[in-house]
Amino acid sequence: MNAIIAKRVDSGTPDTSEIRDLAAAAGYTVVGEVTQSRRADAALQLGEGKAEELAEVAVATEATTVIFDNRLGPYQTYNLGQLLPDGVEVIDRFTLILEIFGQRAQTRKAQLQVELAELRYELPRAEAKTSLAKRDEHPGFMGLGEYDESRERDIKAQISRIKDELEQIEQTEEQRRERRRDSGFDLVALAGYTNAGKSTLLRQLADDLTVEENEDLHPDLDATAESQDKLFTTLGTTTRRASIEPRDVLVTDTVGFISDLPHWLVESFKSTLDSVYRADLVLLVVDISEPIDEIHEKLVTCHDTLYERNEAPIVTVLNKIDTVDDDELAEKREALSSLAPNPVTVSGMEGTNVEELLERIDRELPEWEEERLLLPMTDDTMSVVSWIHDNANVDDVTYGDEDVVVSFEARPAIIEQARSRATELRATAAESA
Is 199 annotated as a binding residue? Predict the structure, then answer.
């Protein structure tokens, strides 16, 4: 698929590197580029002369698609389609992102989120087609498609249905998270921009064998985490177990942020971000090889997004230190100190400082507490002792003739459950006395 990149900026020189990467990720071959520095034209986004130049480039390159890095309104899409050769599709960066999401969506949840985002994007265009049809216009081109009087109603009905199904999936996932907490797991989420190296870092943190051992208990644990130099390699969430003795820690890799996402797209993937919002600790992963201004802007966006709903502590992880020298790393650490006052520097690719990161995760997660329980000897006592062994770090078990004393340390939630089970044992012992 041959594509032309188009981009307009209010001032300065247009940077098309990201939109080219996105186009490549979607499978397009970029055969031309048209850019302009001026205020947006309400009808065409580009100025009229530049839009005509775009049409000439499309003819010369035999392009099938024009990809705008700007957000296009329905009428801009329509007007551009009138200028371009027949059969040339006009899309903007958000349609392109949805194409990539659609290609990468493998789980039912991810597929539903993509479908929801596509419908939310299509709705104003369906409304525009209705308006054009009433004016006896016929928007039958690749941008807006043919007019269908019932399409607007269908879109709204589909949006409602998908939101209901996603809500049911989220309830199931929340129950799974609570079961994990009840089982003594600490939940850690990897967040950050796409291509920051989160999936590669997850592979370094994970303990593969224990994932397989717990496959029946946690069927969504993935024994592999794909690591590629591509945008949006991770669309859904991948959860794996990390080895941080004596803790049981589950680390979840999530879909990456990307700059300038519209509200309707963020909303569609909100439930994916719940894995971040409801974690015990968030690792905010940053690509330290990028320009400092870009890193700063991304950190501000991430903090705004995370602090809106997240209550867990956030640790900034400066990744890819293998790509910068010591002086550049020190300079960037200093420049970012207000946003990342105490970061961990790692190389997910080479495994540098991963042990240091594991130690930091241990320090930042909720403190374990010590407990000593006196359990009466009943028919169920040994199952409780076994449960404590499974979910806590047991220091000592002393068996008497009529009771058992268990000394252990665990997360506060596990200690509360152990106390509750001890109370039930005592009640059972009192009834049988």
Answer: yes
Q: Which amino acid is at 191?
A: A
Has 253 been labeled as part of a binding site?
A: yes
Confirm whether residue 195 is marked as ligand binding. yes
Confidence of residue 260 (pLDDT cuts 50, 70, 90): low
Q: Given this model, what pLDDT does residue 273 score?
A: 63
Residue ranges of alpha helices (H) inside 84-107 are 93-104
3-state secondary structure 62-89: CCCEEEECCCCCHHHHHHHHHHCCCCCE
* pLDDT value, residue 75: 85
Residue 409: beta bridge partners? 370, 393
Return the amino acid letter for 37: S
In angstroms, the CA 419 to CA 1 distance is 64
DSSP-based three-state secondary structure for 317: strand
Strand, coil or helix: what is 215? coil
Phi and psi torsions of 320, nearest 5°: 70, 40
- 196 annotated as belonging to a binding site for a ligand: yes
Alpha-carbon distance of 279 to 185, in angstroms, equals 11
Model pTM above 0.85: no
In this structure, are strands 403-410 and 393-399 parallel, antiparallel, or unpaired?
antiparallel
Residue 197 marked ligand-binding: yes
